[in-house]
Design brief:
- The strands form two sheets. The protein has a nine-stranded mixed beta sheet with strand order 5-4-1-8-9-10-11-12-13, sandwiched between helices. A four-stranded mixed beta sheet has the order 3-2-6-7.
- 40% of the residues lie in helices and 25% in strands.
- The chain is an alpha/beta fold.
- The chain has one domain: Ribokinase (UDP-N-acetylmuramoyl-L-alanine:D-glutamate ligase, 3-Layer(aba) Sandwich).
- The longest helix is centred in the C-terminal third of the chain and has 18 residues.
- It starts with a strand and ends with a helix.
- The structure holds adenosine monophosphate (AMP).
- Adenosine monophosphate binds next to strand 2 and helix 9.
Length: 300
């Protein structure tokens, strides 16, 4: 098994869904992704947390054997995000975003993280992603995630990072925004020209599409009926996928297809609770069960 380095936001979130709300709960792309990946490979998490970061939240990473030597600590508050979901749970508004500890942060990777071969650059500023990638000695496979905020505010840096990734993951509306295409297939194909390796376009509750030089693939989502909070689904998908590839140390078309099934299975667990509660409690066995079910429902 190879180590996976996960970099991204580590946040406190305030979230309103149509049926419930929770305040100051652990979130952030790196938190979800690292916890998801921890079921598949040894994980090292990197990013910065603030003075308000609770020791009990650090313990949640340790409890899943995640190496936290790459975490940095700031005197400022932890990254903060407030989001509200629309009635369909599919779309959401960012009501407040405070970079806090990430403002002016220059990531310094310790040697323990710099030798990771598999790297997941989770959703955060592309300038931070670039700095981290440049500190990794010999990256073998780099997965890149982003969101609309960075497409709108840091387009040039983001395009540069897309060109340096082996696998770029975006959701459907971001794919259309970045490619300036209305059709999702055309958007995926255009993004593949920007990312030399492969592109995955996530389509929320419908699954995800892979645009790869060796072919096209679609994975359905696991059918969730107990939806509580969609936050972190994309990060969990990316984390489980990157963790699976690091775990088997393979990155070919067939392996990425299998990794997408594990990504979809793991993401379906995340959305059944707020924060990472259900993700961190559910074992590999339940992920395997859901992955098997996804396989069954996609064969005919
Ligand atoms: P997802 O639902 O997978 O898109 O991820 C949601 C998580 O991303 C939340 O826990 C937020 O704290 C975090 N987040 C929101 N906006 C940003 C941003 N601009 N950069 C990095 N992380 C963000």
């Amino acid at each position: 098994m190879a180590d996976l380095l996960v970099f991204g936001s580590i946040a406190y979130d305030c979230i309103e869904t149509p049926t419930a709300s929770e305040d100051y709960i652990l979130g952030g792309s790196a938190s979800y992704a690292a916890l998801a990946a921890s079921y598949f490979a040894p994980v090292k998490i990197s990013g910065i947390v603030g003075a308000d970061f609770k020791p009990s939240d650090l313990e949640r990473f340790r409890a899943r054997q995640i190496n936290i030597s790459g975490l940095e600590y700031s005197g400022k508050p932890t990254f903060f995000w407030r989001g509200r979901y629309h009635d369909n749970f599919n779309s959401r508004d960012t009501l407040e975003l405070r970079l806090n500890a990430f403002e002016g942060y220059v990531p310094q990777l310790p040697p323990s993280c710099a030798d990771a071969e598999y790297v997941l650059l989770g959703n955060i500023s592309p300038d931070h992603q670039k700095k981290v990638l440049e500190s990794v000695k010999n990256p073998k496979f780099v997965v890149l995630d982003t969101m609309n905020f960075w497409i709108e505010t840091a387009l040039d840096s983001l395009v540069e990072m897309v060109g340096r990734a082996d696998l770029f993951i975006v959701n459907d509306s971001e794919a259309k925004m970045l490619s300036q295409e209305r059709n999702i297939i055309l958007a995926g194909r255009k993004l593949r020209k920007m990312c030399p390796g492969a592109v995955i376009v996530k389509t929320g509750e419908y699954g995800a599409m892979l645009f790869h030089k060796d072919g096209f693939f679609v994975v359905p989502a696991y059918p969730v009926s107990d939806l509580h909070d969609p936050t972190g689904a994309g990060d969990s998908f990316a984390g489980a996928l990157a963790g699976y590839l690091a775990g088997i140390e393979k990155t070919d078309f067939a392996s990425i297809k299998k990794a997408m099934v594990y990504g979809a299975a793991t993401a379906s667990i995340t959305v059944e609770s707020f924060s990472c509660y259900k993700l961190e409690m559910t074992g590999r066995q339940e992920i395997e069960r859901r992955a098997k079910y996804i396989k069954e429902i996609s064969q005919f």
